[in-house]
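Quiz preparation item.
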């Protein structure tokens, strides 16, 4: 399970937004629907997820109705604040959303559309484990208005999947991708590199397999060891080696070269798409600081600089919603310094880059040094943008420290 929730101010029980909140109705609005259920917990995962034996008072079969009740609360709160806008993107994440019946996901989406409306051409994504995607599931999701499936491939190599505690069969990824394509859905596949025992040749095999699927989008994330996870305990006990930073850098460079050669273009440090239209608009909404409401236990929300997060456990979440109370556990408004750090951290990760004008005046002189060090592109800087080079992507944290420190 995820670590403790952030510290923050108490959240109002009715969920009402502060009256002095300056809401810009022109900012796009997104919805994130958290589905916290998993058959097993992967050893590296610290997301807020629960297996059947950990639910203690919450039932998966009730979840669609419970989350729909939070949607009703959100509509009331946003309407009272004059912030009701149609959804530009919707994302079902987890956990494993497709552990629920496809009809339950369709029902939650229908409730959200009824509550907020949907912008023209909206993107609706569902994350999926390959073993849970059948042609019938894909068709039901497409008919409900889902436009995109994000499939957790992680690796094509059995011993790497075993090291990550992934239980799906590698061949099921292709079956899931084909089912999604046949239903008319766009497809993204997610990969993880740097698992214990994974070699550069293993990673190359996974990249080749992913490219053979001819998906629209590929995400490739370096394995990060999160405290409190099974994998962190195994490393601490010396049972498996800690990921090698140099090897992970080699893996990233290999991924970037292979994906570029296959017609993909990076648009965020860990994400590549075949065209601008196939970028994840929902994730871009996060990176650009747009507004979103996160539904479900442990979900985080952001509206006009105000942030809040829900109670973690599905049973506590269900109890609050059943009592017609907000499930929010805490709230905060980051100050100007924190907001600037976050903006630089997120926007510098994008291929579109960060405006030099948004960097503190006293730090703008450091741009020249970052160009000299080969971390940002000189031509982009002349156009007023900080855009990372390949070397800069590998050392992105150092760039952020230079621009904000």
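Solution:
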């Amino acid at each position: 399970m995820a670590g403790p929730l952030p510290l923050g101010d108490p959240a109002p029980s009715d969920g009402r937004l502060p009256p002095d909140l300056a809401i810009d109705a022109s900012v796009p609005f997104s919805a994130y629907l958290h589905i916290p259920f998993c058959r097993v917990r992967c050893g590296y995962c610290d997301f807020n997820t629960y297996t059947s034996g950990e639910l203690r008072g919450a039932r998966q079969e009730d979840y669609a109705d419970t989350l729909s009740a939070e949607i009703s609360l959100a509509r009331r709160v946003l309407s009272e604040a004059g912030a009701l806008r149609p959804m530009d993107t919707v994302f079902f994440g987890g956990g494993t959303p497709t552990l629920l019946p496809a009809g339950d996901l369709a029902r939650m989406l229908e409730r959200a559309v009824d509550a907020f409306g949907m912008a023209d051409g909206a993107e609706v994504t569902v994350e999926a484990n390959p073993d849970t995607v059948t042609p019938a599931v894909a068709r039901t999701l497409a008919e409900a208005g889902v436009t995109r499936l994000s499939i957790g491939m992680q690796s094509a190599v059995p011993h790497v999947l075993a090291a990550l505690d992934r239980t799906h069969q590698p061949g099921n990824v292709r079956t899931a991708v084909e089912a999604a394509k046949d239903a008319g859905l766009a497809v993204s596949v997610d990969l993880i590199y740097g698992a214990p025992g994974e070699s550069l040749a293993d990673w190359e095999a996974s990249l080749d397999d992913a490219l053979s699927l001819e998906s629209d989008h590929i995400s490739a994330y370096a394995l990060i060891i999160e405290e409190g996870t099974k994998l962190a305990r195994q490393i601490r006990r010396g049972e498996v080696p800690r990921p090698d930073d140099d090897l992970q850098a080699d893996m990233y460079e290999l991924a970037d070269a292979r994906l570029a050669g296959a017609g993909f273009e990076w648009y965020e440090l860990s994400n590549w798409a075949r065209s601008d239209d196939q970028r994840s608009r929902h994730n871009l909404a996060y990176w650009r600081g747009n507004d979103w409401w996160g539904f479900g236990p442990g979900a985080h929300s952001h509206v006009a600089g105000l942030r809040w997060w829900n109670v973690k456990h599905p049973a506590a979440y269900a109890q609050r919603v059943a009592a017609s109370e907000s499930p929010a556990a805490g709230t905060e408004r980051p100050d100007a310094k924190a907001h600037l750090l976050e903006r630089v951290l997120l926007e510098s990760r994008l291929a579109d880059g960060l405006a030099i004008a948004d960097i503190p005046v006293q730090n703008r002189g450091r741009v020249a040094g970052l160009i000299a060090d080969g971390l940002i592109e000189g031509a982009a800087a002349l156009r007023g943008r900080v855009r990372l080079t390949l070397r800069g992507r590998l050392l992105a944290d150092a760039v952020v420290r230079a621009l904000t420190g």
